Amino acid sequence: MTDNARNSQQPLADAPVRLTPRERQVLLWCAYGKSSWEIGRILECKESTVNFHVSNILRKFDVPTRVAAVIKAIRYGMLAEQ
Predict the structure, then answer these.
(1) What is the fold, at CATH topology level, of the domain defined by 20-75?
(2) DSSP-assigned states of every residue in 19-68
(3) Is 79 helix (H, G, I), strand (E, B) or coil?
(4) C-alpha to C-alpha distance for 35 and 33, rounded to whole angstroms
């Protein structure tokens, strides 16, 4: 494995993004591939509320999609198993 490949798998030191606890929950369920409707059922809130949180997450990570946000969160070590 090259140094570049090894470095790309290491979490980045400090995440430049601060998420609310609810945004973290939504992002985690996005990582599991859940839809907004499913996340709303899980978190007992409206689908539109989930979409609001997703929009905030995308803006904070400066990415266009949920997948890109999940990838960045993984790289920042924000979705690491605890």
Answers:
(1) Arc Repressor Mutant, subunit A (1.10.10)
(2) --HHHHHHHHHHHTT--HHHHHHHHTS-HHHHHHHHHHHHHHHT-SSHHH
(3) coil
(4) 7
Cα–Cα distance for residue pair 11/78, rounded to 1 Å: 9
Q: What is residue 76's DSSP assignment?
A: T
pLDDT at 82: 43
Higher per-residue pLDDT: 71 or 81: 71
For the question of whether the overall pTM of this predicted structure is more than 0.85, the answer is: no
Rg value, the chain, Cα: 14
CA distance 43 to 63: 24
Tokens of 19: 């998420």
